[in-house]
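Please predict the structure of the following assembly.
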Amino acid sequence: AQSVTQLGSHVSVSEGALVLLRCNYSSSVPPYLFWYVQYPNQGLQLLLKYTSAATLVKGINGFEAEFKKSETSFHLTKPSAHMSDAAEYFCAVSDQGTNAGKSTFGDGTTLTVKP
Amino acid sequence: DTEVTQTPKHLVMGMTNKKSLKCEQHMGHRAMYWYKQKAKKPPELMFVYSYEKLSINESVPSRFSPECPNSSLLNLHLHALQPEDSALYLCASSQEVGEISPLHFGNGTRLTVT
């Protein structure tokens, strides 16, 4: 079964600093990977997705992620944090084949941005 | 604003009540989902509908009963719930099941069972 692990349940950065949220995947086939963001009292919103077309994926709000097969990683980055980036971030892998329709989410990382 | 609309936003119900959660999308998506999310946890898949047919049931107790009346609507009927069922219930849709289309989530219904 495919899975993702998010390293660090809480990340705190200063406004303007680099944001790095870590996600490692476990999959026996090329995975479909996603990053979602959840603001308080809202549902999840797609930030970006990896579907094997390009290893560096650009998303909304200035976020991007790089797929590294050798490291089985799909870390999320943003060069300069903004106060509005404070939220919960989830990495997810989409199952395929007979399990199509199931998305497995990581445990989430809470991002705090300090002024 | 989200393109997946869920009603009500909040619901408080007793353990003997019957209530329904509603979800609507007009993006032409053919897959719809129910997720349950507890505080500080990731969403947990409950049900998947593909072309209005139930394709996945993640061993959810029968006190939760999903219904997909048409391709735009998804309901979750609730009966005889337990306090531990209190959570945020999220509806989502995607273009298809089995494709690499991402999930589009509603803002959820926050359910409290007393």
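The CA atoms of residues 65 and 76 of chain A lie 4 Å apart. Chain A is about 0% helix and 55% strand.
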